[in-house]
Write a structure and sequence with these properties.
The complex is a heterotrimer of chains A (241), B (70) and C (224). By secondary structure, chain A is mainly α. Helix content of chain A is 73%, strand content 0%. The longest helix of chain A has 43 residues. Chain B has 70 residues and is an all-alpha fold. Chain B has a domain of 45 residues. Chain B is built from one helix and no strands.
C-alpha cells in the first residue's frame, strides 16, 4: 500500500516548509553584500540538493530493479526521476532569477550549481524519449534502469568536476560581515532543506499511490469487461505493474 | 555585488518563491486531473458491476446493494 | 575472457580494414570541422584555451560518429544472437567494442592532431606533445567507455542515431572539461606550460568509475 502514512507525512511537510519560509523572511539576517536577494538562496539551493539526491536515489532504486527484476523498483525510480527533473527546472529558473538580480545577467557560468544542473537537466531530458522508444515493457524498464544507474553516478561526478573548474576561476563566498555562513542563516537553511526533502518524499509517495490506484482500476476493468474491452494500449513511457 | 535597493530586489525574490509555488501547484493540478479521471472510471465500473449483479439475480430489495451509496 | 575479447576485437578491426567505413569518415569529419571552425571563428590561428576547446570539440563530435556505427553490424546481421549463444562472459563484448572504438579514435587522432597543428594552432606543437598524448589517451578511454555503453543502449531503440548524442554528450561533459583544462596551458602562446595534474587525476578517476559501472551494468543490456 503506497498511501499509508501519506497524511502525517504531508502534514509534517506543510509545517516544516511553512516554518522554513517564515524563518527566511522574519528571522534570518540580511546578507551584508546581497541584501534581500540572498533570500533566494533558501529556495534555490535546497531544491538543488534535493534534486541531486533524488537523481542519486533513483539510481540506487534502479540498481535494486536490475538486481531483483521487481517492476516496483522501476516505478519508484521513474517517479523519483520525474520529480527531480521538475525540481531541476525550478533550480534553473530560480538560479537565473538570482543571477539576474545579483550580477545583472540572466546566466553566469561561474555558478557551479547552475551550470551542473544545466548539464544534468539535458541528460535526464533524454530519459523519457529513451523509454518511449523501446516498446517491449520489460526491456524498456531494464534499459531505463541502466540509464538511471549511469546518470545517477554521473550527477555527483559532474558537480565535482564543474565545481573544480569554476573554483579555479571564481571563488564563491557567502559573506555577511563575518564571512562564511553564520549560525542564523545556517539554521534557516537546514530547516528549508528539511522541508524540501519532506516535500519530495510526500510528492513521491503521492504519485506512487496514484499510479498504484490507476493500475488497480485497470485490473478491475479487465476483470469486469474481459481482456478485449480494454482500451487499446498506447505505446507509453511509463512503467506499469 | 552591490545590494539592490529593497524596492528593486523585492520582485526578484518574490518571483523566485512564486516559481517554486507555481511548480508545486502545477503538480497538484496534474494529480487532481488524474484523480478526477480515476473517480470517473471507478463510478463507471461500479455501475457496470451493479448492472451485472442485477441481470444475474434481479434486485429483491436490497440484497445486492453495492458498498458505495449514491 | 581474454580469448573472447581478442577474437571480437580482431573481427572488428578486420572488418574496418576491409570496409574502411568509420576511420576515414571520422578523420575527414575532423578536418572539415577544423575548416568550419576557421570560418566560424574568423581566425587564422588559435592558442591557449581556444585551441584546446576547438581540438576537443572536434574530437568529441568525430567520436560520436564512430559511436553511432559501433553496434550497427551486430544489430543488422544477427551478431547479438550469435554472441549470446557463445559460452562467454557477456562483458567481453563491451571490452572488445570499447577497445575497437579506442583504436579507431587513436587512428583518427594521428591524422587530426597534426592537421590541427598545421591548420589552426598558433604556437609550435613540439613541446606540448608528451602532455598532449597523455591527455588524449586518458580522455579517449573515457570517451570509449561512455560511447560503447551509450551505443549499446541506443542500438535497440527506434531513434538510435538521435539518442546517441543526446545521451553521450552530457555524460562526456566532465571529460571535455578536464581535457580542455589540461591541454589549455600546453597550447599557451608563450610556449607550452606545465600539465595541470589535477585534471589528469580527474580524467583517471572518471575512467575508473565509469569503467567499473560499465562492467557491472553491460550484461543487463544484452539479456533478451
Amino acid at each position: 500500500m503506497y498511501g499509508k502514512g501519506l497524511r502525517p507525512l504531508a502534514i509534517t511537510t506543510a509545517l516544516v516548509l511553512t516554518g522554513a519560509f517564515a524563518l527566511v523572511f522574519f528571522w534570518a539576517p540580511n546578507d551584508a553584500d546581497q541584501g534581500l536577494i540572498q533570500k533566494i538562496f533558501y529556495v534555490h539551493v535546497p531544491m538543488g540538493i534535493v534534486a541531486l539526491g533524488g537523481f542519486v536515489a533513483a539510481g540506487i532504486m534502479a540498481v535494486q530493479h536490475l538486481r531483483t527484476g521487481d517492476a516496483r523498483w522501476d516505478l519508484r525510480s521513474y517517479v523519483a526521476i520525474h520529480l527531480s527533473i521538475v525540481l531541476a527546472v525550478g533550480v534553473l529558473i530560480t538560479g537565473m532569477i538570482w543571477a539576474k538580480a545579483s550580477w545583472g545577467a540572466w546566466w553566469v557560468w561561474e555558478e557551479p550549481m547552475l551550470v551542473s544542473f544545466l548539464v544534468v537537466f539535458l541528460l535526464y531530458a533524454t530519459y523519457q524519449p529513451l523509454r518511449f522508444s523501446i516498446e517491449d515493457r520489460e526491456r524498456q524498464a531494464r534499459y531505463a534502469s541502466v540509464f538511471a544507474v549511469l546518470a545517477g553516478a554521473f550527477v555527483p561526478i559532474n558537480f565535482a568536476a564543474i565545481r573544480m573548474a569554476e573554483a579555479y576561476i571564481h571563488p564563491r563566498t557567502f559573506a555577511t560581515t563575518g564571512g562564511g555562513l553564520p549560525g542564523d542563516m545556517l539554521i534557516t537553511f537546514l530547516v528549508a532543506l528539511a522541508g524540501m526533502t519532506l516535500l519530495f518524499a510526500t510528492l513521491w509517495k503521492y504519485e506512487l499511490a496514484s499510479k498504484h490506484a490507476t493500475f488497480q482500476v485497470r485490473a478491475l476493468r479487465r476483470r469486469l469487461l474481459g481482456e478485449d474491452e480494454l482500451a487499446p494500449v498506447r505505446r507509453s513511457a511509463a512503467p506499469t505493474l | 555585488m552591490p545590494a539592490l535597493p529593497l524596492d528593486e530586489a523585492g520582485p526578484y525574490v518574490a518571483a523566485a518563491y512564486l516559481v517554486f509555488l507555481g511548480l508545486v501547484l502545477v503538480y497538484v493540478a496534474i494529480m487532481a486531473a488524474k484523480l478526477g479521471r480515476l473517480e470517473r472510471e471507478l463510478t463507471e465500473l461500479n455501475a457496470l458491476a451493479r448492472e451485472r449483479a442485477d441481470t444475474a439475480a434481479p434486485v429483491t430489495g436490497g440484497t445486492e446493494e453495492p458498498i458505495l451509496h449514491e | 575472457m581474454r580469448h573472447a575479447v581478442g577474437a571480437l576485437l580482431r573481427k572488428d578491426l578486420a572488418l574496418e580494414l576491409r570496409t574502411r567505413e568509420s576511420i576515414p569518415a571520422m578523420a575527414l569529419f575532423s578536418l572539415t570541422t577544423f575548416v568550419i571552425f576557421h570560418f566560424g571563428l574568423d581566425r587564422r590561428s588559435v592558442e591557449g584555451d581556444l585551441a584546446s576547446g576547438v581540438l576537443w570539440v572536434t574530437l568529441l563530435f568525430a567520436a560520436i560518429l564512430g559511436v553511432n556505427r559501433l553496434f550497427v553490424a551486430e544489430a543488422e546481421q544477427g551478431g547479438f544472437d550469435g554472441f549470446l549463444l557463445a559460452p562467454v562472459d557477456r562483458t567481453a563484448l563491451f571490452v572488445a567494442k570499447a577497445l575497437a572504438l579506442l583504436a579507431f579514435l587513436l587512428c583518427v587522432e594521428v591524422v587530426a592532431v597534426p592537421a590541427f597543428a598545421v591548420l589552426l594552432l598558433g604556437p609550435a606543437p613540439g613541446p606540448a606533445l608528451p602532455g598532449l598524448v597523455a591527455v588524449l589517451l586518458l580522455a579517449d578511454v573515457g570517451i570509449c567507455v561512455i560511447g560503447t555503453l551509450v551505443a549499446a543502449i541506443a542500438i535497440r531503440t527506434r531513434a538510435r542515431d538521435l539518442i546517441v548524442p543526446l545521451l553521450a554528450l552530457p555524460l562526456l561533459v566532465p571529460v571535455v572539461l578536464a581535457a580542455a583544462q589540461a591541454t589549455a596551458p600546453l597550447f599557451a602562446q608563450g610556449g607550452a606550460e606545465a600539465l595541470p595534474l589535477r585534471w589528469i587525476a580527474t580524467l583517471a578517476l572518471y575512467d575508473g568509475i565509469f569503467g567499473a559501472i560499465a562492467f557491472a551494468v553491460f550484461d543487463f543490456l544484452l539479456e533478451d
